[in-house]
Hints:
Layout: H1 4-30, H2 35-56, H3 64-91, H4 95-102, H5 105-115, H6 125-143
Amino acid sequence: MNSLWPIVIGGVLPAFFWGITAIFQKQSATSATGSAVYLIAFGAVCALAGLLAALVWRPAPWTAEGLGFAAIAGACFAVGTGLISFALFAYGVPVSKLAPIWSCNVLVTLAIGAVILGEASEVNIMRLAAGTVLIISGALLVSSA
C-alpha cells in the first residue's frame, strides 16, 4: 500500500467531510433547529453509520474497555458539537469565525498524546512548537477577519 493512502483516508477525507459538516451544522442552526434536536439527528445518523460499517467491515471483537473509551469519546464529541450548535443557534455566530478556533483541537490531541500516551519521543519538539504558534496565530487571524 502506498504510504500516502493512510494520510488521504485518515486525514484529508475526514477534514473534507468535517468541513462540510460544519456548513450543514450552521444551516441546521439557521433553520431554527436547536442544539438538542441537532444532536439527536446527528447521533441517530452516526449510529446508523456504525451499523452499516459493522456490516461492511469485519468488526473487531467488542471489549468493555474499548466500549468504555468509545463512549467517553462520544460524550466528549457530543458536548463539543452541542456547544458549537448552541453558539450557532443562540448567538448566530458565523461558522467561519468559529471553525478556526475549534480546529485548534489538534493542539489538545497533541498535548494529551505526548503526555498521557507517551508519544512525546515520537515528535520533534521544535517543529511542534513552531506548528503550535502557527496554528494559534492562524486561528486568531482567520477568526478575526
